[in-house]
Design a protein that fits this description.
By secondary structure, this protein is mainly alpha-helical. The chain folds into three domains: about 150 residues, no CATH class; about 190 residues; about 150 residues. Helix content is about 75%, strand content about 0%. It starts with a helix and ends with a helix.
Length: about 675
Amino acid sequence: MSSKSKKHFSAIIRLFKSEYSVDALRNTIAVILPIIYFFYLGWPTTAIGIGIGALMICMTDLPGNRSDKIKAAWITNLIFTFVATITAWSASVPALMMLTVVLITFMLTMLGIVGQRMNAIGLMGIILATFTIGLKPANPLLYGNYIFLGGLWYSLISLSQIWIFPYRSLRRAIKQTERDTAALLKLRAKGYDPEFSLSGFNQSNMRLHLKLANQHELIRQLLLSDERAMREVSVKGKFFLEKSTNLIDLYEQVSAVHYDYPYLRNQFVSTGVLPLIQSSIEVLAKLLTHPNSDALSKFESLRLQLLQKVEELDSEKASLLQQILTNIDEISALIAAIHQPNITISSNEEEVRVRDFLTPAPIQANAIKQHFSMQSPVFRFSLRLSTLCLIALLLITWLSDEHYSYWLLLTMVIVSRPSYGQTVKRNAERFGGTVIGLSIGWLVINSVGTPWQLCISVIGLFIFFAFNRSAYSISVIGITLSVILCLNVYEGNLWQLVSDRVLFTVLGIALCLAATFLFPIWNAPRLSVLLTEVLKANHLYLQSALELKPHHLTSIHQTRLARKLSHQRLSMLSEAIKAAHNEPFRKKLNWPLINRLQLLNYQLNVLIATLASMQKQSKSLLTLNEIKQINEHLKNSLTQAETLDLHRQFVLPSWGSRPLNLVEVSTHLSKLIKP
């Protein structure tokens, strides 16, 4: 077995051992139990209706705290009941059905402006409308009640779970953040190995950096929006708050480990220092995820050896090593604090400060109103998806004799994504997963009897839930297998099932790809604006770091807020660059320039984190003249960034062998942006 295959196999094994498999098992049981029960009673219509209601709502059950899930359960059940009833009511008149579904599609897609959870509710609401068209229920009110009961059944299961385990999602997010931070530590440790190639190092660094920024944002949302966790009486809430704060501070310290590796390798060549630093950081990574006395003893031994090296080296090298050692000690202290948080009763002022880190949802009227314009990506995508639905409904009406023609609309709703690159990727995964799922289904149907087919369909449903958010192509295989087996048992006619599935999937994919040019959402034109926002955020972070004082709560708080903003802006820029890489007109852009600007802004952010770390220890890294130079360069860059032409082709100035510091990075940044 190749190393790549082993990696994929171990990832699958980890998934089935993880909480994702627990969620998948819960969802599978919640969907199939009412179906089995009501089929046993001889009420197939009830079984299908309640089963679909449970299936739809479980797909909206994103990680959240107790209050999030209670609100989402009520909102989802009410929306789904309304959508199911009104779609079923309009289905008898084609023109009315088209108008109803197009309006529902537009309104539910616009829910994306409120946040990820409402976006999921909107998407599943549209999919529910599609299922309703295919089912053609005779009694709209009765069908709406079935959907409501299915949603209520799942909500009771989900809310019971969150009531018994209120911090389950938060625990999972913290554990994942610990693993990702350890991975970043291990990567940084490799930088001290002279044998390790630094080619692609920065790209891997940035990917982990942005992944961690998103993880920290999730932790903040889960913890700070939970009124129960934030109340004074909640000891567990204080425990998780302290742990989360230490994790975020650890992230800053790990970022500060990012030094100029070529320079360090030259400085410490033949001194025996580099292997000691590498081993120390690797042991710290192990202590973060699997704390034990042996690893702690090993770290203490390595630390003593590094202290001995400080005494042996000349003053310049000893000073550099002492800086690294100080950073390593900070990381060690934070890891200890993460595993044994110091819970204190916070004041009202500290409670307000903590809530400053919560990113509010744009639910105000003015914020929502701004999205109803052609400048808003959500509005443009809503128009595109509504138009696609109209085209699909016209084709469905024309192909009224085709029993499974609603699969066309279903495919288009599921695979359509705002950006071109996301849509292409989703379409490829959908097609590949459908073909494999149909092939397995055909084999199963021709090999085993009905009882085994039903058992395998349940396994397919479990696979769908287990991989839906981590490996979409595998989840498509699971749901295709499950659907084909169930429909074959319920209705028969295997050839029509397979041929219709292939035909409407391919047609839906083709229409979705063509529609990306209708009300397009291109990321390339946004790059200059996003670059400006990153520069502004980094400049604000620099100013906050310069004003930072040891044990001064206000300045520490402002620096953390500025750091959070800079990480968010870097994440937005990186996502836009990744999306623009896959757009049709990507070859017209100056990609070496864009990649260099992204890297320099990332390095600037990391160096500011290093500065903040030293400021907290009353150690200044910069002279007044250097601070003036850096500010001038950043202000010049900001002035020119908005009008920067990213299509202009020119030879980039070489970085050379200059040291990696704030003065050099800001100077180089200013030169690149200068017209």
